[in-house]
Amino acid sequence: MTQPSQPTDVVPADVVPPADVAPVVVPLTEPSGGVPEVVDSPAGLAKVVAAFAGGRGPVAADCERASGYRYGQSTFLVQLRREGAGTALLDPVALPDLSAIGAAVGDVEWILHAASQDLPGLAEHGLRPASVFDTELAARLLGLERVGLAAVVADTLGLGLAKEHSAVDWSTRPLPVDWLRYAALDVEVLGEVRDVLAERLADAGKSEWAAQEFEAVRTAPPPPPRVDPWRRVSGTHTLRDRRKLAVVRALWEARDASARARDVAPGRVLPDRAIVAAANALPRTAGQLITIGEFAGKGQRRRAATWQRAIDQAMALPETALPSLRGPASDGPPQPRLWADRDPEAARRLAAAREIVAALSEQHHLPVENLLQPDALRRVCWAPPAPATVDSVSDFLRGRGAREWQIGLVAGPLAGAFAA
Question: HRDC domain location, by residue (predicted)?
Fold first, then answer.
């Protein structure tokens, strides 16, 4: 990959700063080939396909969404880079089918940062990598304290990557040049970052761990629909009355329908705090509703009848139709804070297991949650296989999605702790 443009005051490679001096970070301010124009026509896409077909090595990729502005998680810009082909910025709204690029590059590796966030958006547009290298996951496995893209670029290459446009409205058209520069820089050095991280993984004996993690994220199925998504309204936990919860549910449903129809982020249609305020006040008329501070603005006053109609529907429900205070039943174990009373032996297993996982995490320099998924740990402690042998614990964890490298580290110690 072509080296990015850099200032001339770079510290020479053979000059090592004292241990108490922070490493010099050189700002990365301009893509090496300049800021590409957005490709939004079939003719432009054909040129990109030809260029990437003639390129070399892996494909670096990133996606930009409009979270907080638009409904859902649609992709509004796709950034791709390949050695010998340069960087392409693609408009997936104008070009919803990008599968020709995937066909052109074949089964080469794709490099992404936090791949789980971008792979669904790429798949929506026909891009399904045959293999991936996730620079965020690699950084986690290596125990880096900060794993955001800018931090990883600084750690691996000594380059400073600005992130001031990460939360802008990427559905904007035309996209400002500054935003496009930012987008191009996000894939500018992913190839170099990947090579440094791959070398570090090999030195640490973690290459196979990484390969298993990358394949797991690449092949992960879409998450199931969330049960009672309205319960995620911020502040709902403060409501201990079923009628008030019914108001939250009704307002959430009305807000979601409006947001979907208008393609606007739900929080911009009606903030969570407004929903909770209405649930606490239980207004009987639209006139009472707009006396609540969160509904006093022009936009909410204009839609007051809609919100009040939802509230009225919740108020008219019979007791049998009101939501539970406890929420939907779960097939998982109870909250760990309840274990000591409900099952002291399970609480003992969990305490021992947490000590084991914490020690292994420290020994191998990686976060606890990357050593073993917390849900899998809780489940095996609450209802371990009987008898708890290395093989039975391994099978249990495998059934909960644990990778072989994780099982190899934790199954034996856990089985021993359960048998003690």
Answer: 241-321
